[in-house]
């Protein structure tokens, strides 16, 4: 199973981001993430055997008990990579819990399955972001968008991703409330 831990967004934030995504839809070559799938990845795990699920659920619940609910802020957009040809157009996120959640998940997964299990997510530093669109074919950069969005983060989730020709299908397998 292809798995990742993520924070999903409330309806009104998704709606505001969907409006920003219209800017990308003017450019052929950018493919927007469907609004109901917009999310912030905390840790990408890649393929894991189904037998790992129980441990991954337990890790999520344990970490949820250690981190308090917090406010997330979205203020603007950016690109990965920023230099050269961008592949991803994203909304940059801030919030005091994102770092502790991402770090806690990395540490927990390392402890459970070893360093090897962290390889899927790459070795780049964690930058909380919400991918708005992916560049599939040559297309100009989308003009920047400024937001004044915030929402309370009260839970995160373990998500299954099934890759399909039309785009991935995400299924939330388990939710982990924050109650630190
Ligand atoms: P992205 O939005 O920046 O592409 C599901 O694929 C989620 O896991 C996406 O949000 C994606 O981030 C993230 N992710 C992180 N590393 C990944 C990788 N090596 N392959 C695919 N997705 C990855």
UniProtKB/TrEMBL annotation:
Gene Ontology terms, MF aspect: 2',3'-cyclic-nucleotide 3'-phosphodiesterase activity; ligase activity; RNA 2',3'-cyclic 3'-phosphodiesterase activity
Enzyme Commission (EC) number: 3.1.4.58
Active site: 39, 129
Motif placement: HXTX 1: 39-42
InterPro entries: Cyclic_Pdiesterase (IPR009097), RNA_CPDase (IPR004175)
Reaction(s) catalysed by this chain's protein: a 3'-end 2',3'-cyclophospho-ribonucleotide-RNA + H2O = a 3'-end 2'-phospho-ribonucleotide-RNA + H(+)
Keywords linked to the UniProt accession: Hydrolase, Ligase
Pfam families attached to this UniProt entry: 2_5_RNA_ligase2
Motif HXTX 2: where in chain: 129-132
Alphabetized HAMAP family for the sequence: RNA_CPDase
Role this protein plays: Hydrolyzes RNA 2',3'-cyclic phosphodiester to an RNA 2'-phosphomonoester.
Family to which this protein belongs: Belongs to the 2H phosphoesterase superfamily. ThpR family.
Designated name of the protein: RNA 2',3'-cyclic phosphodiesterase
Species name: Thermus arciformis
Classification of source organism: Bacteria, Thermotogati, Deinococcota, Deinococci, Thermales
